Amino acid sequence: MAVRDHEGLVLDKFNGLWDRGDRDSTPPDHFQECNNVRYIGSNSFGTRPGIGISQNVAVPLTNVKRVYNYPTQTANTLIVLTYDGVDGKIFHVVNSTTVFGPLLTIAGMTDFAFVSYAGRGYISPFSDYTNGDLTFQKGLASEFLYVYAGDGTAARKAAGVGMSGSMTVANGAAGHTDAGLHLFGFVSETISGYLSPPSILTQFTTSPANSVSFGSIPTSGDPNVVRRHLVATIVLPTFNGDLQGYTYFFVPGAIIPNNVDTFLNDISFYDADLLDDASHLFDNYTEIPAGATLSLYHDRLVLGCTFTDISLLLISNVGEPEAISQIDGLIVVPLDGNPITNAQDLRDVLYVFKRARTVSYVDNEDVPSSWPLVVVDNALGTSVHGIATVLDSGSSSVDFLIICTYQGISLFNGRYATPEVSWKIEHFWQQQDRNLFGRIQIINAPIQKEIYCIMTDRRLLAGNYGNGLDHKAIRWAPWSFYMGVNTIAVVNIDEIILGADLV
Amino acid sequence: MSGTFRIRLQLTIIITPGFSATPAVADLWWGNTSGVPTILTSSSQIPLALSETNNPVTNGLIQMQFGAVTQATLHFDTGGSNIILDGDEGHPYEFNGLPAGFVALSAEVVAEYFKDLFDPLNIYTIHLQKDATTESSPFTVVTEANTFITFPYVFSLGLPTMLDIVHNGCGLRLNASGAGFRPVYFQVLDIEGTYDIISYTWTLENPGPVVPSTTPITVTSGTLDLSDLDIFIQYIDPGTGDVITTPAIQILTQEEHLLIFIVDFPIDVFEIKILAVGNNGTQFSGSVILGTLTTIYFTDASGIYKLVVSQKFDTLYIQDDPPNTIDVKIPDPFIKTGFLP
Lengths: 503, 341
Hints:
Number of helices of chain A: 1
Low-confidence stretches of chain B: 12-38, 45-61
Structural class of chain A: mainly beta
Mean pLDDT of chain B: 66
Helix content of chain A: under 10%
Number of strands of chain A: 38
Distance between the termini of chain B: 34 Å
Largest sheet of chain B: 8 strands, antiparallel
Radius of gyration of chain B: 27 Å
Structural class of chain B: mainly beta
Strand content of chain B: over 45%
Mean pLDDT of chain A: 92
Oligomer: heterodimer
Shape of chain B: elongated
Strand content of chain A: over 45%
Low-confidence stretches of chain A: none
Radius of gyration of chain A: 27 Å
């Protein structure tokens, strides 16, 4: 057949990279290779957008390892980890011209988990560890969960111990109590609402016609304590000498509203007023070990994969992210030698991930240790940053998750959808070094209809789902830069932030 | 490819007492405005001497006079930037700019000179000098008219390399048959020869697309002996636009067929050339480009960036000068379909 008899092939659709291992099978409307292209409209493509600097300060942050959205009460801001090879330092980037920090400096902190709660930031330092050939992430040794107030002050260790010392107790002015032996103590409350275990426990026999007054009350050595609450037992018919062996309750209205005063006088109460149990505070961690993942579920803080127990979840009380019971706030995810990598709320279910396993727990309105386990998938899981955050929410989009598994990038709505949305680039994805999956970080930018994923080689994989979010319609393209990018975040609805360092 | 080269030696005097078998004793003279020969005491007087027009004899010439002795020595420098290839006068080369693989095959000194018109019968012998202890056999000069003579640029140490020629220039030692006022005038002093272009093969492994400064760069060769090369990097200074050539690398391995090095220099440009210079000229003269790193050697372009949808380039921090930035092109955007390779 003569050349002139060939029928021309019109290429008017460009549906992105196709890399499934057999180049010859690449459809004519796909690319065998591409780099730094973006998709425009339904059928066009062009060069990717450029990048510009995000900070307008004299000393911009360098060696950026991780960036998270940090929605405060008043603004969308960033929380940033830099690492100079020795120390990890966390900064609060309020806007292009204002940077607070370092808020926290910890040797060996190469990564951290972060969650924002009530305007405060909770920070858990972690790093890479190895077990044989496996590289994984877990909480940094001898380190703890930190809380940042959001105001530029240094982050401090979350939770805390009670006060130490002793106090005097005496009958006060005329008043009323149920006469008899009571045990009294004080619970200190920090600025972040954390309630310490009851301390300076003291016995005293009250009189029926008198109130009770307390003197020489120690102040807390913790400068973050803003008030102190009186706790008491009901009348004890007998007392065995164990001050912590009884149930304490908050005494209504008996509060020292500062950390200065050393007295609280003329407190009257009946035992029937003692309804709010404070005994569980004895069981709480006074310092919470660092983990590799932080998330929120039903207004509880969820921390997973500590240095000493890679399959342990620590779950706080409702509304008290720093109050985690060492007795019943724990969940041990089935042990399989792999660490917990992530946890995410979806449709009132807490999904917990390991690198190749997914399980779920449901809040049964009882303590976390009683929550029932359901195995979701025994083959697919994700990495520490492998669940797409959406805008600045840091969580699921509408009714599904976008999750990076060893199989590819999958949609998850309680089960992993098949085929995965990265089906067209299956070979590309499986070329990634599994030991470097800790580098993968993914976000979903629904305004741009783009998925952005930091790859193990520190390029960026962009997936445009303007034509639909399914394995056929999505259009992929790797983006490279003249430096490696480590981290990505979305701020202010649709501003894509990239963090880069040298290593 | 072969051809001819010519280097016109600069009439720049290198005052090198050692450039003689015996201490330099000659004087340099030029004719002043009164036609009276005047002694030259420094190189800076050469242009003035050459522009002299009042003396028909010494006009534009440098003369060597013997005074009370019978021996004079001069050394001429090549200047290093006036290498003419294949007679192309309008395109002089610097040594480092010679074509890759340039090898000098032969060389000779060509001099046009004439003797003292007032002492036509004296006999001179001229030696070509390489250094204080190395010179050619004497060439006898007996004529008094303008004469071209040629000396093979050959010494007992063997065939000179192009680097030898350029570095050494040429020394002349004249012996007269007797002391006295017997100048010799030189008007042309060239080194001429033939050359060839030798092909070598090598491969520079480009580790892109992102290359931290600590990444070793590997060059492997087929025929090029890498063990005897000096390596340089060349880039355009983004601030001034100047072409910068610097040996700012750290050699990790340098063997006959393997060269591994890292760039030991914070470069804030996105394209650098790797140059090899034959450090003894036995393989080639000038320099060859081993390869171009089209990626970047930002030692640290780290920081926080944002996508700018309307921007057609990347703005990156300059490491040594933050928060200043540099705009670079978006690296290698391309697509490849199965139908359009």
